[in-house]
């Protein structure tokens, strides 16, 4: 089965790295956590920019050697995010169920989030999504995840994930007090970066 990036290794694509650095320059703080960090390239870039970085992934086999970063093998569904200033979620969100997406956003509330994710916007994708459905009031599509034992970027513990429509995605964030800046141009037809900034009281 194809992966959402078409089977290509886009993890260190120049446009992704550029968007990450630009968005990171717009937020303040010292401590950043990179959720689903995988290969660790974004964690390393953040450390290069002076951030104290924790990199979390349920699989630790792709972690590089860099002693500036705290490398943690763990599940995003179990982590405490309360001690971090900024949350980076780059390529993980669209591998979660709707319930886990909402729980993650609830945990992040009050802190900036840099999100890089697919959405179900009706544009062509190399993977087969279901028809649009409405779940708990959010419109979107289900993505059947590939075999977790064969794909290092597949979800962990769920056979399907949820790709909200752009409208539903923005609503998820707005309901949790975020204003959202969207990176343009999108680097894939269904995927780009979003900077989610807590709305001032």
- Strand fraction: 25-35%
Q: What are the segments in which pLDDT stays under 50 over at least 5 consecutive residues?
A: 6-11
Strand order of the largest sheet: 3-2-1-4-5-10-9
Cα(first) to Cα(last) distance is 46 Å
Written account of the structure:
This protein is an alpha/beta fold. Helices cover 20% and strands 27% of the residues. The chain is built from 4 helices and 10 strands. The chain has helices at 14-24, 41-48, 98-108, 166-175, and strands at 31-35, 52-57, 70-73, 86-90, 113-118, 133-135, 138-144, 160-164, 178-182, 191-198. Strands 3-2-1-4-5-10-9 form a 7-stranded mixed sheet, with helices on both faces. Strand 4, helix 3 (98-108) and strand 5 (113-118) form a beta-alpha-beta unit. The longest helix has 11 residues, at 14-24. It is globular and about 45 Å long. The protein starts with 13 loop residues before the first helix and ends with a strand.
């Amino acid at each position: 089965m194809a992966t959402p990036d078409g089977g290509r290794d886009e993890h260190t694509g120049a446009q992704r790295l550029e968007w990450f650095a630009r968005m990171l320059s717009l937020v303040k703080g010292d401590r950043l956590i990179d959720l689903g960090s995988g290969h660790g390239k974004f964690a390393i870039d953040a450390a290069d920019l002076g951030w104290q970085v924790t990199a979390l992934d349920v699989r630790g086999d792709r972690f590089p050697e860099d002693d500036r970063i705290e490398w943690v093998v763990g599940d995003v569904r179990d982590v405490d995010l309360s001690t971090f200033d900024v949350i980076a979620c780059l390529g993980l969100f669209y591998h979660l169920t709707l319930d886990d997406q909402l729980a993650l956003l609830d945990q992040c509330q009050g802190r900036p989030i840099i999100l890089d994710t697919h959405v179900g916007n009706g544009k062509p994708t190399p993977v087969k999504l279901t028809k649009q459905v409405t779940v708990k009031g959010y419109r979107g599509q289900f993505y059947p995840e590939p075999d977790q034992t064969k794909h290092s970027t597949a979800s962990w513990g769920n056979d399907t994930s949820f790709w909200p429509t752009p409208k539903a995605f923005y609503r998820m964030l707005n309901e949790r007090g975020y204003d959202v800046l969207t990176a343009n141009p999108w680097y894939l037809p269904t995927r780009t970066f979003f900077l989610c900034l807590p709305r001032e009281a």
